Amino acid sequence: MIALDHVAFAYPGKGLVLEDVSLRLEPGAMVCLFGPSGCGKSTTLDIVAGLRSPRHGVRRVDSRRIGYAFQEPRLLPWRSVLDNVRIGLTGWLTHHEADTAAMAWVSRLGLGAAASSRPAELSGGMRRRADLARACAVRPDILLLDEPFAFLDGETCGTVAQAVRELHGTGVTVLMVSHVRDWADRLAARILEISGTPVRL
Amino acid sequence: MKRAAQGLLPWLVLLLLWAALRAAFGEILVPGPLRTGRELAALVSRADTWEHIALTLFRGTAGLLVGAVLGYGLGIPCGLSPAAMRLVAPLVTALQSCPPIVWISLLLVWAGIGAKVPILVVAAATFPVLFLNIAHGTAGLDRGLLEMARVYRLRPARILLEIILPGTSRYALAAFSFALGVTWKVAATAEFFGSGTGIGARIYWAYRQLDMPLLFAWTAVIVAIGLVLDVGVIHPLRHGVRVEGAGPGGAP
Predict the structure, then answer these.
(1) B143 at the A interface (CB within 8 A)?
(2) pLDDT value for B240
(3) pLDDT at B246
(4) Backbone CA torsion sign across A166, A168, A174, A180
């Protein structure tokens, strides 16, 4: 369950990004925050992920494990794609289980041939998929997706959408942000539209 | 062939200069290359010479390890916390400006003559450069990677091994290549004043006896060690810095 109650947030030395955001996602919900670039959507995801603390308001997130596909893929440049996906699995899966789960998602998102490549050797779209593969591979109960369809071609968008749909079908709560409504509509996500900053929702 | 000749040229110039100095000041003050060569041959054929060399290298390495442990131990927290950096960095910079002779004097009083002095002096001489490089390397890490580690609940040891150490490797290699260059020189200097064993102590002994051929032979040993370390360790490390530059710095 995700609950934000009257959350306000500002980056140090800057004005409010979020002024009064209240949001509630029951387990298994799929919601898309839709709005123009720079309006605070990613900040909202960061707060849900626990990476930013609200200045005011309350954040409550009941989660066993969060998967987060970042807007800018956060991959270790000195590690292969497979290692990057596996990093979220170490410590709670055996080495073999982690390998199998990581490779399954790497292949699933069309990166099988690039599994041993380093991020610098990949295109922007491939890096985004590697980041998404890690988010999916950790068997999350909450999946946060920041612009998951940006810079991907139509076919790859379909692959990503299918993966998200399947995870959602297993009861995973999905909160995504997008400035393109098309794919959010196709996934039948509940759309919360944001307009103007600071955000009131 | 031409490159080999070019490589030999500086040594030839050195030998000529040396022979000229010998001619100018006489054999007693400046033993010539041949006399020194004979003394050196006698020196390296003695087992205790190698024991002294090994002792100096061991003390240098031990001191460097202490400096590295302190450099990483303080540099990483300071790199992660600007407040800690503001507190510690000026003190380390002040430490860096202390010449080794200050440490040698103080440690001779505090710890007495023995192996502790060269080890601790090397640690004090190498710690600042290691600390400053590790701290700045850590401060320059991609914060997004550390946030990723938080989301996926990576343990501190894993964050250290997977993110911090590789991410600071360029800085660490540069610092180590510099620190290695000063380590054995500082160790020998500390032994000169504060130890009965090691290369520095043998140089002190030759100086007290005014045994100039022996002094020159030990100097040749020091120069040889320096060259071996430079070619065998420092040069590859610097090459590693250039190679690694395409790694962490080459993040997409």
Answers:
(1) no
(2) 66
(3) 39
(4) positive
